[in-house]
Amino acid sequence: SQQGEEDPQALSIQEGENATMNCSYKTSINNLQWYRQNSGRGLVHLILIRSNEREKHSGRLRVTLDTSKKSSSLLITASRAADTASYFCATASNTGNQFYFGTGTSLTVIP
Amino acid sequence: GAVVSQHPSRVICKSGTSVKIECRSLDFQATTMFWYRQFPKQSLMLMATSNEGSKATYEQGVEKDKFLINHASLTLSTLTVTSAHPEDSSFYICSAVKRLAGSYEQYFGPGTRLTVT
After folding, report:
1. Closest approach of A50 to chain B, Cα-based (Å)
2. Per-10-residue mean pLDDT for chain B, 117 residues long?
């Protein structure tokens, strides 16, 4: 069910730096959502960007969407140790009954 | 936002027993729910799509007789792992789809850690 690829697979940065993760997908979408998952826990919904939107902000998060390139990026600014987690993108089909997950990016923020 | 609960959060059972996991959308109705399985350090693997009032749609390779899914109401879907074996030990996550005008948003439960001994 995965149609998305995320890069990098793993990212390690110092606290205070910005972290950028990318997601690419293959088919037309209704929207794209980013999630965070702490080790052994469920997924937390971070932000949703619709196919007719190009950029969205939420606190320290900035998401962009380029439907022509079928890609999205998640930027976390001024990272904190608590941001250490895996981050996944997921696309929703136009029919709303198919969601595809990326492979995830494991982010480590070093205090 | 939207809240999805899952119960239990953790279960340990003996080989051969059956385990039921509940997924509830607490503040919205969900005609579609999904069940995923996640292995350590991997992404989510879709097991089945649960549709209210109809049979679930299973992904290739997922045994429908082993993983029974019931979506009896717009807020509840259950996954029953029948005759569980150690290889069924995993993290099971459900999600519910919230439909808004022209948009579909997927919200996840906190997951259930199943250990079969």
Report:
1. 8
2. 88 96 94 91 88 89 94 92 95 90 84 95
